[in-house]
Design goal:
Length: 45
């Protein structure tokens, strides 16, 4: 049976727990952030 996207969590290495995801607009770009500490998930190279 498929898993719904709302049941997926991302691991936050700083807290050592699962975390919710939010979005933040910087200029023209949208980045993903951890909800608990507002740190960026996406790393641009």
């Amino acid at each position: 049976m498929p898993i719904h996207i709302s049941n997926i969590a991302i691991f936050n290495p700083l807290s050592g727990k699962k975390d919710r995801v939010g979005f933040k607009k910087i200029g023209k770009d949208m980045i993903r952030i951890f909800r608990s500490n507002k740190n960026s998930i996406d790393i641009k190279t």
